[in-house]
Fold:
Amino acid sequence: RRQQLELQAAAVARGDASINPPGKWDFFLSHYQAETAALAEGLYGALIDAGHSVWFDVKMNQRSEAAMQEGVRGSEKFIALVSGKFFERPFCLKELRWARDAGKSVVPCVDRDDKKSI
Structure:
């Protein structure tokens, strides 16, 4: 099993394979599950219905840190569902940094019920 994971990691690093095929998406959806799960699901569904591809953690086969990083790098745009504790969550911050470092367009979204408290 370990050898298989090492071979897969090497193939991903070379660009010969992706952790979550197809390896390219229109959008990466970043969110704090405890606060924006329903909003994230709704946005995911609307984007899919509109014909877009979306990297959304709960829909991915692999959700490792490497898979998340690949998702950010392989997406055209990065959507941040900003909530009260979004900027306190380590993985939300990592994803945001990866997007910035990769030069991705960041689209912040705030639920209208949260606008006054954020």
User: Anything to note?
Assistant: Helices lie at 2-14, 33-49, 65-73, 90-101. The radius of gyration is 15 Å. Strands lie at 25-30, 54-55, 75-82, 105-110. Residues 33-49 form the longest helix (17 residues).
